[in-house]
Design goal:
Elements (H helix, E strand, L loop, with lengths): L2 E5 L6 E5 L4 E3 L6 E3 L3 H9 L2 E6 L3 E7 L5 E6 L12 E7 L4 E6 L2 E4 L7 E2 L12 E2 L2 E3 L4 E3 L5 H12 L4 E6 L4 H9 L2 H6 L4 E14 L2 E14 L33 E11 L4 H10 L1 E2 L1 H35 L4 H24 L1 H6 L1 E5 L5 E5 L4 E5 L2 E5 L11 E5 L2
Parallel strand pairs: 10-14
Antiparallel strand pairs: 1-2, 3-4, 5-6, 6-19, 7-8, 8-9, 9-18, 10-18, 11-12, 13-14, 15-16, 16-17, 17-18, 20-21, 20-24, 22-23, 22-24
Amino acid sequence: MKFVEIRCRNCHSPLNYKEGMTAIRCEYCGSTFVLENENANNKNAENNIVRVTYESRGPIYTTYVPNGWTVAYQENSTDTSKYSCRAFNLLFTEPKENRALVFCPYAIYQDAKGVNMLNMYNLGGMLKSNAVSYSNVDYMTLECKRPWKDINTYFAERMNELVHGTSVQSRKINDFDEILFKTARSYLPFAQKLGDDLEPAIIDCELTLSKGSATYKGIYLASLLIPKNKERKQDTTADTSLFGLFKKGLGGIENSLSANHWIRCCDMILINSSDKDMLRKVLDTLKYEGLYAVLGEEELQKVQQIQMQGALQRQQNQIRASQQLSRTLNETSNLINDSYRQRSQVIDRMISKSSEGIRGVNSYTDTYGDTVQADVKYDHIYQNGNTFVGVEDGTLELGPNWTEIKRKD
């Protein structure tokens, strides 16, 4: 075998490559790169099969793209969880006739009531930036919480998320039942490992979208695994590989799995078009590449490292708290007075911002100039890329890559 030395694009350390390898991992920084086959790429190009590449790391999707259309990934931070720490939507666009198709990947939700609606980013094209989300990530358990009610409510919520502010009329069609049910059934083994009693459900309907005087046609498809009943047992299985989805699933999740989940296997919305043949080709050809799972694993490791640092910090806080018990009565009294003053300051801030106080959040400006909101119990918010951490006392040491963001006046 012939060996060639190449360099890692992330840390520039040497990589040992052997002919025939399809992926290579850096032993120094842990980055994984998918190696593409030029002959296969040429054949795919003839059939309008495109590999959607994540930065310089390699492809995360393979999909059919019609002539005149383009496709790009957009990161979706709304539907991530410990089962998929990175999620990427696909946005297909055809500018000549202003057509668009959005594909949203699988998401595992924990059925939880009372989730707040959060601002959602713009999906591009005709989709609206002022949409809302009914999902909420719990950064302690890394569960994505989203209540399940019924199929009609879910459809209404998704229309509110995807085409917010648009009047929607729908008509049931039966053209995609077989492939949507097949997709849902492929996730049943994973649902069983979660300890959930789920059954397949689908939505396939034609849409009439109205905004002002403009009217557009469209199609919405969804493949789901939904609860059969309300009484669902708990399970503490540690095997979290996504059965049949990737050759290598998401490993390394240490937390026990809890029941009461439901799964969005996929959904997609076609705007300003009723091209069913295009949708069939996309559904028939679209597949996740191995890098999709690798990116999720890498993100999970980062999150777990932060959680471990937080646990160490809490342990140190407990030691300091034990030492404080030996202080004099006067010092203890001062601590109590300081605590009351701090609580008074928090109350004053909530009164001065009544709308935020009612909702229990504070507004901050992140390093990109965007506004983010955090629970009022956090006095300090730190940012590293698209990851945010809140602390109450400001003593957490996260490292040089973390920046404290400022609260808006």
